[in-house]
Each structure stands twice: as C-alpha cells, then as structure tokens.
Amino acid sequence: MRTGAATEEGSRKKKTGRRNPEEETGREAGALRFLKNFAWLLAGVCVGCLAGRMLLPWLTAERPEDDFAAAQLLLEDTEKGGDGLWFRRDTVNADRVYRALEAQLPYAFTMHCKTYQDGSAELSVEVENRAAQEQAEALARAVAGSLGLEGMERRAQLLALHDWLVVNCAYDLSVGESEALDGASPPFTAAGALVGGKAVCMGYARAYQMLCSAVGIETFFVVSEGMNHAWNGVVLDGQLLFIDCTYDDPVPDRPGVAGHEYFLVDAQALRRTHTWDEEFYQVLGSRFYGAGAGGD
C-alpha cells in the first residue's frame, strides 16, 4: 500500500513538474493575440483622436446665412477682442465678407483668411495701430459733444458733422501711390483726418463714420474700386442716401469753406459722377440699416 501510494504521488509530482510545450504555445499565442488587439485598439484611438481634431473645426464652424451675416459675426468678435472665427468654407466668400466688414468697421484693418483641407476657413481681423485709431474715436466723441447737437434732427446733425470735418481737415495731396497700398497709413485712417487734420478719401469717410457714431447715427463706408475712392452711406426715413465729404472739401483747401453738393444725395444723383457696386451696398443698407428696396 505504501509503495503504491508513493508510486502514485511520485507520478503526480512527475506529471506536475514536466513542461508541456503545447500549453506554453497556446499561452504565447493568446498573449500575442492580446498584444495585437491592444495595438489595433491603440492605433484606432490615436486615429480617432487625430480625425476628431482635424474634423472638429469643420463640425463646430459657423454656418452663416450669407456673407453679410458672416461679416456681422466677425464684427462682433472683433469688437469684443476675439481672435477670429471658423466658418464652413462653402458658406463664405472671403472677399465679400471683407467688403461687408469694411463697410461697418471704421478702423483700418487686415482680415486674415486661412483655409483647411477639412473644408473650414478661419477668418480673423487685425486692427492696425489700434491705439491711434482709438484716440481718433475718443476725439470724435469729444468733437460731437462740443457741437451742441443734442435735440437736433438727424439731418441737421449729419450736416453739422459734415461741415466740421470738411472745414477741419484738408485733402492730403502728398500721398504717393506707394502709400496707397497700405490702408493703415495715417491719411487713410480716421486718425489722419481727426488727429492730424490731413487725409485722403478713406480717412474722411472713416472719420465721418466715427463722428456720426458718436451721436448715435449709423453710417457705413462705401468703396469704389473703379474710382479708387470712398464715401459714406446713411439711411434716412428708409431711403439710402450718400455723403461724400472728400468731394465737398475744396482742393486746394479753402479755410472755413464746406461744399454741400455731395451731402445726402440719392443713388440717381450720385451716378452722374460716381460708380460703385450698387446692389451690394443696397443689400447692406437693407440688412443692417433699414433701407427700403431700390436704390433710387
């Protein structure tokens, strides 16, 4: 009996202590499958994260109704000091967004546009020499406050501000073509007109926009690429009218003299001497300033 027990125990020990190649191979294969599956899972997570990061701008990008709405969003972002917005590229035309923004923002600025393969576009606004332009805006408020315009009708306020600007600013004849490429040069800004007292058409128009804003009158900036010229639009009683302070300022300058030939003229009258994208600015006036249909 004891011998048999010993023999059985010895057999168990022998069986337990022996390596089984088949079992080891199975464990190794299982571990290898686990590592492969884990590697695929990790790769999938990495690819998913990368794809998510690439698609996130497109998925979260703004989808404005049109370019005017896109410009309004960008204007609001700029006014609160934002660093730009993402748009779905197929919903915006960068050139038209720039023009609509330029019409409403009285600062000289650069609009940056970056496009991406995911179908998104990043638009951001860089205000040029912000300190000088904010100084001009503060001066515009001071001037408007000094003219005693409270209680006056809007037409009278517009005239008083027009005359002040024309009398106190002279057309800068020294501006060369090289400077014309840089819209941030003083003559092209409200600062040139209000602080320096010299400007070209863009400076006049931006300064007038600031002056009107100071008394709560919304005007906008009109640009003619064909004429290389700029002036202002305003809506009175539902009608879109135009004011060209530059053309009302005699050249050479005549101290104390302000013309009124281009003060509050309608589109029909302005066509005699000016060309511009009438449809674009009519839509702009209708969307944001209450202009009625039609340009006449």
Salient structural properties:
11 helices, alpha+beta, three-stranded antiparallel β-sheet, single chain, 2 domains, 8 strands, 296 residues, 14% strand
Short précis:
This protein is an alpha+beta fold and 296 residues long.
Structure description:
The structure is a single chain. The protein has two domains: 60-127; 130-289, C8orf32 fold (Roll), CATH 3.10.620. The protein is 52% helix and 14% strand. It contains eleven helices and eight strands. It has helices at residues 2-17, 21-60, 67-79, 94-104, 130-146, 154-168, 177-180, 190-196, 201-214, 267-270, 278-289, and strands spanning 85-88, 109-115, 120-127, 170-171, 198-199, 219-224, 229-236, 239-243. Helix 8 (190-196) packs across helix 9 (201-214). The chain starts with a helix and ends in a 7-residue tail after the last helix. 32% of the residues are buried.
